[in-house]
Structures are given as C-alpha cells and as structure tokens.
Amino acid sequence: MITDALKKEFETTVGKDNVMTDAVDLHSYSYDSAVLEQIQPGIVVRPEQSEDLGKVVKLCNDNGLKLTVRGAGTNLSGGTIPHPGGVVCLTTALDKILEVNEEDLYAVVQPGVITAKFAAHVAAKGLLYPPDPGSQAVSTLGGNVAENAGGLRALKYGVTKDYVMGVDFFDVNGELIRTGGKTVKCVTGYNLAGLMIASEGTLGVFEKFILKLVPPPAAYKAMMAVFPDVMDASRAVAAIIANKIVPATLEFMDNFTIRTVENFRKAGLPVDAAAMLLIEVDGHPTQVEDDAAKVESICKEHKATSVRVAKDDAERNAVWQARRDALPALARVRPTTVLEDATVPRSKIPAMMEALDKIAKKYDLTIGTFGHAGDGNLHPTILTDKRDKKEWHKVESAIDEIFDEALALGGTLSGEHGIGLAKSKYMKNECGIAAIEYSRKMKSVLDPKGILNPGKILGPLLA
Amino acid sequence: MITDALKKEFETTVGKDNVMTDAVDLHSYSYDSAVLEQIQPGIVVRPEQSEDLGKVVKLCNDNGLKLTVRGAGTNLSGGTIPHPGGVVCLTTALDKILEVNEEDLYAVVQPGVITAKFAAHVAAKGLLYPPDPGSQAVSTLGGNVAENAGGLRALKYGVTKDYVMGVDFFDVNGELIRTGGKTVKCVTGYNLAGLMIASEGTLGVFEKFILKLVPPPAAYKAMMAVFPDVMDASRAVAAIIANKIVPATLEFMDNFTIRTVENFRKAGLPVDAAAMLLIEVDGHPTQVEDDAAKVESICKEHKATSVRVAKDDAERNAVWQARRDALPALARVRPTTVLEDATVPRSKIPAMMEALDKIAKKYDLTIGTFGHAGDGNLHPTILTDKRDKKEWHKVESAIDEIFDEALALGGTLSGEHGIGLAKSKYMKNECGIAAIEYSRKMKSVLDPKGILNPGKILGPLLA
C-alpha cells in the first residue's frame, strides 16, 4: 500500500513531476505486450539520474514494496506486469549513450536507450550492434538484456547475451555492483553479468551496460525463395546449414502468413506458395556472391519454384518489409494475437511444423507461423478472441501441446520472449524441480523480502 | 579428516581402485600450474560413472568434507589446489564424447574430455571447436569451463563461454541440475550455465556440457611481422582493428622472448627485432587474400622491417611453433616462471608495454612479454627463483604494480587464467566490496557448509 508519506518520499527522490498515481497512469502501466490480465500498480516513478534509481530500489526494499522496473514493455511474457499495488519504475529517462569506443569496439549505455536508436548511433560511426529484436524501434536495451532478446540476425551474430560485456546493477539494498568489463577477455569473479542477462529484473536493477560492437559486413544480399511444400522449405533450411553456410538471416513464412501480409500491403507476394524463405547472406563481397549462389541452388534442389535475389537496396527492403509486416498483419485478423516462441534444434523444424499443423486442426484454430527458421525459433501465432471463453480454452490447450512438442523434440519453452508470468508454470517441464530450487535459493538470499519483480520466472515464492 | 570409515564409503562409491591415500598420490594432487605452496589433500577419488560423481559430492557434503574437483590441473591461479586434508576428485575417467550433432552444430561431452582430443574429433567431421587455450594438449573441457579458458583464437572466435550452450551440474546435495540447452536461442530460467562458467568449482560440480560447434574457415593465412620498436608493433595492432579487420589470431612477442625462443629451437627468428607480431587471418579465400594484404601494408606503415607471409602449411606451422615455444623456452631460463595475464582494452597495449618496461627496470627483474595482443591479453612472464627470498619479495611487489596498472588502464586482473587462490586478495580492487558480498551471499546459500573448492575466487569465507 502506497501511503501519502511514501509517495512524498518518492517525490523527494525523483522529483514531483516524476511520480504518478493518477488512475490513467496506473492503467497505462498495468500491462505489457503479453496476452495476460492487467494488474494495476500503486505508483509509477521515473528517475532521471541513475543515483536516484538506486535510491528508488532502496526505498522499496526498506518498505517492502514490490518493484517492477520497465522500459517500453514490449516483452511478450508478462515480464513487466507489476505486482498489485506495487511500484513501477520507468527507465525511459535514463537514456544516455555514455561512450562509444571505436578503438576497443564497445559502448557504455544506460538501460533506457532505445535499441534502434543505439544501433543507428553506432552505425553512423561505421560499427554494428547486431541484436535486432522485432520491437527494436521502441524496445529499450534494458529490456533487451532483462529478456536476453534475440532477433532476425541471431543465427550468425547471436543474441543480446553475446554482446553484453559488463553490467552495473543495483542490488536490493541499492548498492551499485560492477561486473564484467571493457576487455575482450575477463574472468575476474563470478559471471554476474551473465547471470543478470535474462533474469527479468528479479535479481537486481540495471544501472548501465558495456556492450560489444563489431565491424559491419562489407556486403550483403537478400533473397526470397518460394516453395510449394512446407516440408521442402524446412528441409532447405537444414541443408543450407549442413552445407556450412551461416546466413545472417534465414526466415520462414507459411501460406497463411504470406496471404495475410499480402492482404495488409499489396507487395506482390506469392499467395499460392505453401511457404517462403527470406534469406540474407553477408560478409566479404566475394563470399556473399558465393554463398548466395549456393543458397539459390540448395533451394532449387529442394523444389523451390522461384528464388528472387534482391538487385538493389529497394528490393532488399521489400523482402524485409514483408517479414516485418508479418506480426502487424496477423494481429489485424482477430481481436487477440498469441505470439509463441517455442524453439527446437533447427533439424527438428520439419517435425515441429507437422506438429503445429496437427494441433491447429485438432483444436480448429487459426495458427499463422513465421519466424527465425535458421535457429529453430518459430513464432506460431494463434489468432483468436480472448472474450470467446470456449475458443480461449482451446487456445490454452493448444499452447500446452505446443510446449510439450517443443520439449519432446529437444527444444525449449522460450527462444527469445522470456518466461515472465506467462510460462513460469511450465518451467519444471523443461528445467526440472532441482534447477528451480537452486534458482529460488539464490533469489531468496539476494532478495530476501522478494521485492524484485515478484512472480516472474520462478512463480510465486514463499518468501 | 578422512577416517577409515569414510575411506570405505568412497571405495564403495567409486570402487577400491579409484581411491588413493598413499603419500605419493596425495603429493601428486597437492599443486597445479600456479606458483603457490603445495597443499596435501586427505584422499583422491576418481569416479568412472557420472552418477558416482554425484554420490561423491553428496558424501562430501553430508560429512562436511572440502571438495576440489580437477582435470589436468593446468590452471595458473591455484584453482585446483585442494583444501588441507580435503578431497580431490578427478574427472579424468569421465572422458566420453557423448554426441556430435552435425546438423544442429553442437556436441555433448563429459568434463574429463581433453580439449585437443575433442577439437580433433570434431575436426574429423569437418567442424570447428574454436577455444584453444595454451594447455589444450592436456587440459580438460571441465577445467576450461571452470576457468572460462581463452586462447589464441579469442579475438575473432571468443572464449570458452561463447561455446557453452548448456551445463548439467550437481548441486552440493548431489542433485543433478540441467541448464541451457541444444537450441541456438534459449531464455528459459536463470542463465545458470553462464553462472557456472568461470566459477572454478565453487558453485557446483559439472556432469556434462553442450558445446557449440561452427563451420571451419575455408582458408587461412599466417604471417610474421618484425618491428624495430615495441611501440610501433603495439600501434600496428590497434591500427589493424581500427581498419575493421578481425584476425583469427594476433599475437605479440618481445625481444627477450624472441631471443629465448630462438635459443630454445634454432628457427631463424629475428633476434635483433624489438618485437614480432604473429598474425593469422581466416575466412573466405578472397577475404583472406584481401585481409592479408591489408595487414601487411598496415604493418609496413607502422615501420615493420619485414612481413613474411607463410607460403604453405609448413611455413604456417613454423610461425605457430615459435609462438607455442614461448612459454617452455622462457620457463627454462630460471627455476621459477610467473606467467601473468593482466589484461587491458587493446588500445591501451602501448601504455601497458611502457608500464611493464618501467616495472621490470624498477625492480631489476627479467620480464619476457608475449601474448594475445589482439584482445589486450598480454602475458608478462617474470623469470625468477622463488627460493631467493629477496628477489621473490621484489617479484611480489612487481605483480602488485602490474595489476594496479592494468586496472588503472580500464583492464582486468585476469583475462583467462582465473582468480583461484592467487588473485582473490586483489578482487576488491577491481570489483569492489559490493560485488564480492553479492557473490558471497550466493555462495553461502548454494553451498552452506562451504565444501565446494573453498577459498577460491572469494577468499576465505566465514561459513
């Protein structure tokens, strides 16, 4: 319960203009991008200085107030849905790029920096920050680290985890902890930076990051391959990797998604195709030529009816616009869009596609599937209406089966969307009780009052 | 204290032939590759089955016996020096490569697999396991993960951490915990696999690993650039990176090291050179040609007197033999070899080289410096005699100053050798008290009796 006295303390800490308790503000921060029930916080605060962020953490801990820190709230697992009546702390004012070191190839940033803005900033200096989650235009780097965000380029370049060299974070007492560093190699102490990644705000509050940058590729080439059969497309993905080609991006769209995207923006997509692969290879110009030629011939060997190679940047943009359109186009079809990210080893994609097809038929649901085929990270997207209780019940059963199938194929509950509130009940199926108990022990000593983003990942704790 | 009854229990668990208490065996496992005092364990055990490894852990915890798990003991920081009278558990019999998945590019291995043997095994299948620590011919993968081993290829390919997809480990109660997985993307639960890396056996005992494999480069080219001035060589390193070239390997040797190596094996090295850079670029054949030409011209711009490009595999091997000879050659000169690995952001190498020169002069010590210039990870190697108390005192002061200098330049105490016993007292200078306290809290709840490799990283605990 946020008393007037507590509200005053927050106002003293972050300034009166940065404390919100109006109904409309509380409502605004009661949800994120997951399809879950809204939960109203008791107060929303927005520190402008990182010292104040530490003070907010301490104030919450001293008073046993549950704290959820959030940036843009684009996560799809309820990782930033607050505790009822708890504190929401916005990082949006902590948005400074503190350093870009062009000699040593790293940057130092605050957690509230927008991902795409940061990528553009370093691109202007001739450098690349590869992680490119779908929400990059609005997501913050803090959220990316908290969820270990992936993206389209993960196949070749890896995910957020692979670019975090250091994390400074506040522990629950508001003490600043430094971990990792600016050197390529660093083994001093526990890998707390690694532990912070994907911990969804449950073990500490990020103050700043040291992020790795890389030289951008000298050349790239995008292409679109059209398949009359989903299984052939899936097999082409496996064959590309088996031929030791690692494309920067290797994306999949099924027929339903293709048709929906074409309906959304007339771009001349092959609406009769069972599936499309959208592929980009990058690197040295000669390598790009060689890889593109090999990819084209592998797709044709796997019965692609056409492979269109983008001739210029405009054509390349058209390829990626189609991919970017997938989610907004699907989301228009029905009132509720459930975007899943159960992930399998890439050789199991054909089996996963078959399973998805069966599940859709069994429950009579519309599932459009697209996603990152190259790393086995598909996004089966269920189009439904949550208000239709009968259908929603079928959706829940279908989701259960999708997870069971992914795990049976040696995969994971979540490739890049996180566990949050949405998937914590499934954790034991993948990790087993022992891993959860080990994690709970850690949590219990690092956050003894259980104030840091309660309920996320590990479910309700007894603490 | 290992009683007869306890010895019997160990014998029942791992078999009589796998339990050692003879003086000669206890002596054999009383040290590792660090220059530290020997400490005798009370018993040495060698489980042949991974279930038995879990039972050994439980037996130790139930009886409050301090446990140090080790492979080849090649670490340079005392990470595998046992507790006085404690238990040493060898992983050398747990040496199976359980799976190599050529479609999904991963392998599953037990901790006792020898690094080079594993690399050769996957190479025979046309795949690359990049981490190549100097001790790879004898080191185990378990030790590599426990220390987050680096190596020569880290500049382009990263360190052990970058290839660990999953870790199964026993907690202190002998419960098996699974973390990470076989998919390229995985964000299910805390990144416990990441936490295990570099934790030096203090948080759990490794049962198996899932390791990432990559396609090997299609071509490579090695070269040797000779400089009449150390600073010019250092600046050439920075210029290569600033030109957005990322060599697979970019190694440095100073004049003292060059002369010592030439003395060790007559190979025609330039004994008058102030410094040499040993460089390998790899990738697509055309890229290799382009990069090699650029590297050559950058070295010449920075006053290299000669750049020799290896014409064939024999010449390439000669380049790398010289680098591999550095440590054994230096180690012959005096009775005691102190191999340091204080690491700086790579642009600070010239400053670090100047500092090392000053420190050597100040204390009148012989320091040969070689190492991984490309990632700022130099190995200043002090040649001394530990029995000479007066000189040893100077060596200790010099080491203190080397660490101070590395930290002042934004670097780290250890790039790849670990903290172990040797550097735990310096931890607070880099990480601060808060990070150590945070780590100690974790340790205290995950290992309440403090049996897991006590004293390493965090120093003596009160527990």
From TrEMBL, chains A, B:
<dbReference type="Pfam" id="PF01565">
    <property type="entry name" value="FAD_binding_4"/>
</dbReference>
<dbReference type="InterPro" id="IPR006094">
    <property type="entry name" value="Oxid_FAD_bind_N"/>
</dbReference>
<protein>
    <submittedName>
        <fullName>Glycolate oxidase</fullName>
    </submittedName>
</protein>
<keyword id="KW-0560">Oxidoreductase</keyword>
<dbReference type="InterPro" id="IPR016164">
    <property type="entry name" value="FAD-linked_Oxase-like_C"/>
</dbReference>
<feature type="domain" description="FAD-binding PCMH-type">
    <location>
        <begin position="37"/>
        <end position="216"/>
    </location>
</feature>
<dbReference type="InterPro" id="IPR004113">
    <property type="entry name" value="FAD-bd_oxidored_4_C"/>
</dbReference>
<dbReference type="InterPro" id="IPR016171">
    <property type="entry name" value="Vanillyl_alc_oxidase_C-sub2"/>
</dbReference>
<dbReference type="InterPro" id="IPR016167">
    <property type="entry name" value="FAD-bd_PCMH_sub1"/>
</dbReference>
<dbReference type="GO" id="GO:0016491">
    <property type="term" value="F:oxidoreductase activity"/>
</dbReference>
<dbReference type="InterPro" id="IPR036318">
    <property type="entry name" value="FAD-bd_PCMH-like_sf"/>
</dbReference>
<dbReference type="InterPro" id="IPR016169">
    <property type="entry name" value="FAD-bd_PCMH_sub2"/>
</dbReference>
<keyword id="KW-0274">FAD</keyword>
<dbReference type="Pfam" id="PF02913">
    <property type="entry name" value="FAD-oxidase_C"/>
</dbReference>
<dbReference type="GO" id="GO:0071949">
    <property type="term" value="F:FAD binding"/>
</dbReference>
<dbReference type="InterPro" id="IPR016166">
    <property type="entry name" value="FAD-bd_PCMH"/>
</dbReference>
<comment type="similarity">
    <text>Belongs to the FAD-binding oxidoreductase/transferase type 4 family.</text>
</comment>
<keyword id="KW-0285">Flavoprotein</keyword>
<dbReference type="InterPro" id="IPR051914">
    <property type="entry name" value="FAD-linked_OxidoTrans_Type4"/>
</dbReference>
